[in-house]
# Entry
Amino acid sequence: MAQEKMLSGCAAAAQGAKFAEVEVICSFPIRPYTAIMMELARMVANGELDAEFVHGEGEHAQLSVALGASAAGARAYTGSSGVGVTYAFEVYSPAAGGRYPLQMAIADRTLDPPGDFGSEHTDAMSARDQGWLMGWAATPQEVFDNTLINYRVGEDPKVMLPQFVCQDGYFLSHIPDKVILPDMAQVREFLPPYKAPHPLSPVCPVSHGPQIRPDQGAPMDAQRAMTFLDLPKVIEKATDDFNRIFGRHYDPFLEKYKMEDAEIAFFIQGAHANTCKSAINHLRSQGVKAGMVRPRWVRPWPTQQIAEALSHVKTVGCVESSTSYGGATRGGNLIHEVRASLYDLDNRPQVTSFMAGLGGDVILLEDFNYMAKILTQMAKDRKTHQLVYWVGFEEEA
Amino acid sequence: MKTKKIQKAKGRNEKARNLKTKAMNSKVKAGGPRTTAKGSAGGRKESVTVFGDVFGTINVPKDRAVPFGAITPAPVKQQELFITSNWRIVRPVIDHEKCTRCFTCYIACPDSCWSFNEKEEQMEWNWKFCKGCQICINECPADALSAAPELDFEDGVVRLEKPF
# Structure
């Protein structure tokens, strides 16, 4: 029977892995994601979960173990945070290139220095171009659901790619919320057992990861890129099936909040969206027609869906929780792709970005009010005065 | 004689490449539904670009397709699909008179390019995977190995017009 529990984001991720019946887990401690592994270790020790639990000697080893397990045909699970994510970096491209659909949970943490433990999306966002699937959850329920959806999409025979399932550290990873845990029968209907097409096996020996020649590099890249063309359909089908089986109402790519008549829109990713929604209610009570779009996937980037969702607003403010030092806007990452998605619209909105929620900062209601003020002014002037605003480090406009 | 050997190997290589490995389907059309977004709310009337296959199509010719994830049938002895020695500048040349068959080269080679030919009772060099690192030359206790520039050979890899 389905049951409701109060779970933090980490506990929800662990439950997700348990319901996905992962076969190999590889851990290495770094907070805040560690709580996922603590929970899974407890489950394995108690006999709730029949999985091989390997403790890696570091994040690089963690990913290598997961890659090997996946190559051997096991459903593999691992995770990390902050500098752990960057320490494992070398293995990301081989995992995608070798087509191993392992899953890595990331609970965001700032990179060093300054060694601050707060949540910031830069750690995972740095790895967004490695050929993995990637997306952020906004609630513990979504963390649980994304764990299952990602395995389903990643293990699709047409896809076969590893997945980053991201959540904000602390805001999401350590704050409990109501999570509906489904029936095992529902999960089995949604997520078939993982079947590796060419597993390492003494019965039918294969070579994995051989050296290829330079003239074989380009076709391999093209073949991987082709997978990403197919991905939206697979994600749509998986989300539809998920909604049907579990009775949820996810849009495959974007969460839209009060966008029907919005004039200004926030584009925001992760758990800060929850604050954003209450800020929008507040703004609307004052007559500001604000809305919100939250991408559920960063890779593949939902280009067309974003263009569609934002085509009728006057101004868009990308709330950046990651840094892209020296980038096109000298601010964050999201605005690059949002602007690129909107460029071909005949009457495109003004787009700016707000640096907020860095280093674990909470984005406050008053911050959203400040952003809304700028967005409203931009709409009035029909001009993007600045490409980026460092919230809290600016004089009031 | 060596040229012949190379040609033979080349032919085999072609064959291996054309083998019906479980390569990915080499023609896929871009996904994503065609959508017409029309702005109505928000006060502004606008026509919106109709999105079609904005991501284009990617076609990988069959003869260039790489097996899925570069995963290939395990070779019995060596991987013919990915021959990798075209960056060799020098190659080890063996003096069979001096060679004591001590197998030090066999142990030392990081790419397993030395083997023992039982019929001829002498060591045999594998041109397909030797990178010319010269470790075997350094390690040989009998001084039976020496480095010779690839340019000195008619079949030297530096003379190849196309990589394998």
Notes: The longest strand of chain A covers residues 290-295. The two ends of chain A are 55 Å apart (CA to CA). Residues 258 and 384 of chain A are 23 Å apart (CA to CA). Chain A has two domains: 3-246, 254-390.
